[in-house]
Amino acid sequence: MVVTKDVVLPEESELTVNEVNLSASTLMAGSFHLGKYCEQANNEFMLCRIEENDATKCVNEGRAVTACTMEFFRKVKHSCKDQFSQYANCVDKSSGDYGLKQ
Predict the structure, then answer these.
(1) What is this structure's pTM?
(2) Which residue of 72, 77, 93, 95 is most buried, as measured by CB atoms within 10 A?
(3) In whole angstroms, what is the distance from residue 76 CA to residue 70 CA?
(4) What pLDDT band is residue 8 in, cutting at 50, 70 and 90?
(5) CA atoms within 13 A on the CB side of 40
(6) How far is Cα 50 from Cα 12, in angstroms, rounded to an integer?
(7) How far apart are CA 59 and CA 62, in angstroms?
(8) In its keyword annotation, does this UniProt entry include Repeat (predicted)?
């Protein structure tokens, strides 16, 4: 997409959301279950991006993905924090590509 004077960009306030402030190993450890938990929100966002061919028109869908991710990790923290932290630590220390190896 070429940015010209006709392109209307969202205001900064529209783009400001809470970020998911987690390490790569934590995200990798939760990725499979996160993907299933937030599948609907992710699909809506990707569908919007494909249909609109303009990510600036999909800000609300992107916010929904972030909100779903935050909700997922809050539930993980509440229900199985110790086990998940141990698994994320294992993923972090086991290899450079976050794969589990012995």
Answers:
(1) 0.79
(2) 72
(3) 10
(4) confident
(5) 4
(6) 23
(7) 5
(8) yes
Q: How far is CA 37 from CA 76, 78, 85, 92, in A?
A: 11, 16, 19, 22
Angstrom CA distances, 40 to 32, 59, 66, 70, 99, stand at 14, 16, 12, 15, 27
| CA distance linking residue 5 with residue 54, whole number of Å | 15
CB-CB contact of 48 with 97 (8 Å):
no
| Radius of gyration for the alpha carbons in the chain, expressed in angstroms and rounded | 17
Does 24 score more than 80 pLDDT?
yes
State the pLDDT at residue 94. Answer: 81
Instruction: Map residue 48 onto helix, strand or coil.
Output: helix
Range 73-88 burial, b when 16+ CB lie within 10 A, else e: beebeeeeeeebeebb
